[in-house]
Amino acid sequence: MLNKMNKTITILGSTGSIGRQTLEVAGHLNIKVCALSANKSVDLLEEQVRRFSPELVAVYDKIAAETLKTRIKDKNVKIVQGMEGQLQVARHSNADIIVTAIAGQAGLEPTLAAVKTGKRIALANKEPLVCAGKQVMQTANKHGAEIIPVDSEHSAIFQCLQHSSPQQTPAHKAKHAQQRTDIKKIILTASGGPFRGMTKKELGKITPEQALKHPNWNMGKKITIDSATLMNKGLELIEAMHLFSISPDQIEVLIHPESIIHSMVEFADGSTIAQLSNPDMRQPIQYALTYPDRESSLTKALDLTEIKALTFEKPDMEAFPCLRLAYEASKLGTNACATLNQANEEAVDLFLKNEISFNEIPLRIEEALKGTRI
């Protein structure tokens, strides 16, 4: 367990949405930032370096790395580049907590490197567990790393489970979690995205600009499209399988447009525990950094008198087949999950380039899944 005072953090993916909000939380809590990594957003990265004075910064893009090096030559900061640079940041010895927020499969290798340090991992990218969940969790157990989820849904589940098994982190207690009989099911909530209630025919006319307007959350482009297709929820159910050692049959997805209940756990005795808060990623980020303690946060407190209703409905898997495909892949095994993730990344990229329609995203994924094996 970490002392809540004098913590230091490393952020893999500091210029993305989660990375930026993590730095907000770090500033709020006076947490020292010792290392950062990014792809090529030089202007923002320079601002972050000047404000937080990290010792080490990795820039994946070579030209961007050289540009940053020139701009901050007045600062005592070591600049590294490429994948090797990302790995150096992941292994940085001065960090107590490593926040892994590199989007896509590019985050897998740095996340594994971070897990091997045996430190606390604030896990904000789904893809490592989707593509290599068994390997990541086994590596965490081997090296004694804590994995604390940052996704609002998985953070909610993790918080709910503390009432059943206090201070049990997924990585440290995976063996015990596999033997648990107290959990009946996990309920993952989803906002439904901007197109909830639309028919498949209507969805065929959706443009990238429309899909990038999420009703509740401000996120990166890829994850926003995933939310619109419900693939984001599919990736989350695969992630939850590995984090909490449960089968896909024990995971239910419910559409909850208000995004106030971030997920729930139904226990064997019929009790259901939920975690509620205003939709603000800074809350689960902060919990991952301060766990098991709680501190005053930047998130606005929830006023239940302002909420007219909390509503729930089953997802429409005919109009949004990505969720169905994720369930199918989760039962097929690791290769299918990795194929699902890769095909989705490629399809989303094509959609954002206006090269395929919204409805073609699941068609591309389904085609890629044909013939996959465990």
Q: Can you give the helix content as a percent range?
A: 40-55%
The class by helix and strand makeup works out as: alpha/beta
Q: Average pLDDT across residues?
A: 92
Structural Rg: 20 Å
- CATH-defined superfamily of the largest domain: NAD(P)-binding Rossmann-like Domain
CATH class of the largest domain: Alpha Beta
**Number of DSSP-assigned strands:** 11
Which strands sit side by side, in order, in the main sheet?
Answer: 4-3-2-1-5-6-7
Number of helices: 16
Total domains, how many? 2
Q: β content, as a range?
A: 15-25%
Plain-language structure description:
It is a single chain. With 374 residues, the chain is an alpha/beta fold. It has 2 domains: 8-175, 3-Layer(aba) Sandwich (Rossmann fold); 177-277 and 309-369, no CATH class. 44% of the residues lie in helices and 15% in strands. It contains 16 helices and 11 strands. It has helices spanning 17-29, 42-52, 62-71, 82-90, 108-115, 127-143, 152-161, 174-178, 200-203, 208-211, 221-229, 231-244, 282-290, 321-332, 334-352, 360-369; strands spanning 8-12, 32-38, 56-59, 78-81, 97-100, 120-123, 146-149, 183-190, 251-255, 261-267, 272-276. The protein has a 7-stranded parallel β-sheet with strand order 4-3-2-1-5-6-7, sandwiched between helices. α6 packs across α15 (334-352).
